[in-house]
Amino acid sequence: MGDHTTPSLAAAVSNSGGLGGLGMWGFSGEEAERRVAGFRQQSGGGLNVNYPLWDHAGDLTDIGGPMRKLVQALYDSKNAGPIPEPKASVGVVNQEHLAMLEKMRPEVVSFHFGLPDAETMDAIRSLGIFVISSATTVAEARQLEAAGIDAIIAQGTEAGGHRGTFTKTDISMQPGLFALLPQVVDAVNVPVIAAGGIADGRTIAAAIMLGASAVQLGTAFLRCGEAQILDAHREALRNASDDSTVVSNVVSGLPARFVKNRLIEELTEPGVEPLPFPAQMAFMAPLEDTGDGAVAPLYSGQSAHLTREMAAADLVSTLAEETNRCFSQY
Amino acid sequence: MGDHTTPSLAAAVSNSGGLGGLGMWGFSGEEAERRVAGFRQQSGGGLNVNYPLWDHAGDLTDIGGPMRKLVQALYDSKNAGPIPEPKASVGVVNQEHLAMLEKMRPEVVSFHFGLPDAETMDAIRSLGIFVISSATTVAEARQLEAAGIDAIIAQGTEAGGHRGTFTKTDISMQPGLFALLPQVVDAVNVPVIAAGGIADGRTIAAAIMLGASAVQLGTAFLRCGEAQILDAHREALRNASDDSTVVSNVVSGLPARFVKNRLIEELTEPGVEPLPFPAQMAFMAPLEDTGDGAVAPLYSGQSAHLTREMAAADLVSTLAEETNRCFSQY
Fold first, then answer.
1. What would the pLDDT profile of A124-176 be if each residue is shown by its tens digit?
2. Taking CB atoms and an 8 Å cut-off, how many pairs form between chains A and B?
3. Cβ–Cβ of A180/B156 closer than 8 Å?
4. What pLDDT band is residue A330 in, cutting at 50, 70 and 90?
5. I want to staple B288 with a disulfide (CB 3.0 to 4.6 A). Which of A141, A308, A322, B296 is the partner?
6. Which of A260, A306, A326 has the CB atom closest to B183's CB atom?
7. pTM, two decimal places
8. Which chain A residues contact residue B242 at CB under 8 A?
9. pLDDT at B103
10. Closest Cα to residue A295, out of A287, A304, A286?
11. Which residues of A2-25 are buried (b: 16+ CB within 10 A; e: fewer)?
């Protein structure tokens, strides 16, 4: 979950038996190195570095007019000033990042929205790094396996944040974790990591029953003190119910799950498309700066109600205890 | 799943350790009695009788013009003749059905789309019948419990057939089973039955880990010889993948999950609404009569790929064996 993750959060997770992760969404190679170095100072454990991949370069000056109007109305109501001018960008693991990976050697690199080109994949794998990526359908899992991935994250529709979808499958046809996970496990030979709706021992035990080799939790760690999120975001997670969230592309340009709030409602209008990912996200920073949960993006999965406010190390050990207790009943 | 269920299917399930179910969707009291009698002839076990509830009476003559045009185009392409004239109706457990319940005493009555009025509920409960209904959100589960229900079916978004939703919650905000089930279990004190995506021992074991007291399988039994479905429907289930299905209201007027086919695609047009449930369903019989899986409704959950073609009794015992094997690993 991008910059919600911090070196302290990742270190606390890795120090207590999990595998901590650091999102590298929009960070330069230098910033990425600083983040990994921060982790290394606090932990001798394994680290997972996550890259989103996109390719939407091009001049954005004249596109997204109707969306800019909706955004401007929201800014005006919050006195957030003029809206920023989004810049075109490409999300790749460039030479700067490859040099960082070679120097810092994170144990795991994960991707979102597919995989990089074969050359970059080879370069990363030649460093001995374990490479994983997300699949939201069996077809995507098969594609990842064919590309030589080491493990696959099966991301159910319950998951908070961005859908990892890299084929054209409509969100309305994507399976929930209960259906997705066993079908991915059956379809591929690499280990499968379950994601989406996992927040306590019961959900971990259920994922293992469905064939998962590991689980990935996102929203559950957002309420840890080490996560960098707005107080209003924490409050929204604390108050969320099972039907508080929605998948929308109005925050970033690609579908992601959020607590539904005024931001989502007012930027959603039939026929009005967001700017291409991640250009649309440029509109969000001034809204986040207001600190107002009504207009800030509130990333969340469907199990927010099961999450708890505790230190990350305590959460990891609590999850382990709960999971063991589930299995010891049988 | 309405008339896909047969007395033979329900009897085979109940005779092999499960609880067989008979849908009473659109059946008269007399027809319902004949169905229950058919079950009793073949089984001394328990029976679950299912009623959908609706209230959309009124003159339909002049409504649904744009939808009728889409339907007519489909009929024309299949030489299915003029389209039937849907009749208004109300779905209640009327005196005729209450008399049937009193005479035949099915062990369980389940409802879809909420609960009947308090008087009807009392009448059914005074017969000693166990009453259950479906919830697609925690809020719905709480409403059912407050109304004195004996158990609640937590229906995840993975489920085939009609969403049991009886509040206005949009399908896009409804949780997958992995998120819904534990949150319903936490919210209510009555037993919770898991539904949606359950098709083999792994999925049953996972549902139990999430707190389910029982599981309900629909799509998994459609491929049994005892189910009354088109050959083309069986073939569609055999060939389905995890992302073959979609939730649509164009078949009946209410959202249900189907294998996406030409029927769904051609009746889906922005701004074109179906007739109110279940009037829209009147258009389906002549299309089903063509036997063509492209234009017949193909009810299916997201785990169709995990289902198997076998006799219902074999399926029940296979599911039990598989589930035991899952637990014996730990």
1. 999 999 999 999 999 999 999 999 999 999 999 999 999 999 998 888 899 99
2. 154
3. no
4. confident
5. B296
6. A306
7. 0.97
8. 137-138, 175, 179-180, 183-184
9. 98
10. A287
11. bebbbbbbbbbbbbbebbbbbbbb
How buried is A49 (Cβ within 10 angstroms: 0-12 exposed, 13-18 middle, 19+ buried)? Answer: buried
Which chain B residues are Cβ-neighbours of A270 within 8 angstroms? Answer: 270
Which structural domains are found in chain A, ordered by start? Answer: 2-53+92-235 (3.20.20.70)
- C-alpha span between A65 and B269 (Å, rounded): 26
| Distance set, CA A192 to CA A132, A152, B182 (Å) | 10, 5, 22
Contact A174 B243 (CB under 8 A): yes
pLDDT at B168: 86
Nearest of B196, B195, B186 to residue B142 by alpha carbon? B186
* Chain B neighbors of A200, CB-CB under 8 A: 182
Q: Which residue of B has its CA nearest to A138?
A: B242
Q: Do A247 and B156 touch (CB under 8 A)?
A: no
Position A58 confidence tier, pLDDT thresholds 50, 70, 90: confident
At A162-221, the pLDDT tens digits run: 999 999 888 889 999 999 999 999 999 999 999 999 999 999 999 999 999 999 999 999
Q: CA nearest B211 in A: which residue? A: A202
Mark yes or no for CB contact B173/A260 under 8 Å.
yes
- Distance from the A313 Cα atom to the nearest Cα atom in chain B, whole angstroms: 24
Which run of H or of E encompasses A87?
A: none
A235: pLDDT confidence band, cut at 50, 70 and 90? very high
Q: What is the pLDDT of residue A329?
A: 87
| Omega before B278 within 30 of 0, i.e. cis | yes
Q: How confident is the model at residue B3 (pLDDT cuts 50, 70, 90)?
A: confident
Percent of chain B with pLDDT over 90: 91
Residue A265 backbone phi and psi in degrees, to 5: -65, -45
- Distance between CA B175 and CA B184 in Å, rounded? 11
CB-CB under 8 Å, A183 with B305: yes
Residue B55: strand pairing partners:
B90
Residue-by-residue DSSP string for B220-233: HHHTSTTS---HHH
Chain B residues closer than 8 Å to A157 by CB? 157, 176
Q: What is the spatial distance between Cα A104 and Cα A35, in angstroms, rounded to a whole number?
A: 10
Chain B residues whose beta carbon lies within 8 Å of the beta carbon of residue A245: 173
Q: List the single residue in B169, B196, B243 with the smallest CB-CB distance to A139.
A: B243
The pLDDT score that the predictor gives to residue A59 is 87
Per-residue pLDDT reduced to its tens digit, A261-318: 999 999 999 999 999 999 999 999 999 999 999 999 999 999 999 999 999 999 999 9
Residues B76, B20: Cα–Cα separation, whole Å: 39
B127 and B120 in contact (C-beta within 8 Å)?
no
**Taking CB atoms and an 8 Å limit, are B202 and A211 in contact across chains?**
yes
Residues in chain B: 330
β-strands B161-162, B256-259 pairing? antiparallel
B23 φ, ψ (degrees, to nearest 5): -75, 135
> Which of B219, B242, B319 to probe the A interface (max A CBs under 10 A)?
B242
Any idea which residue has 């789309």 for tokens? B113
Q: Cβ separation of B137 and A241 shorter than 8 Å?
A: yes
Cross-chain Cβ contact A326/B209 below 8 Å = yes
Residue A123 pLDDT: 97
Structure tokens at A28: 């330069």
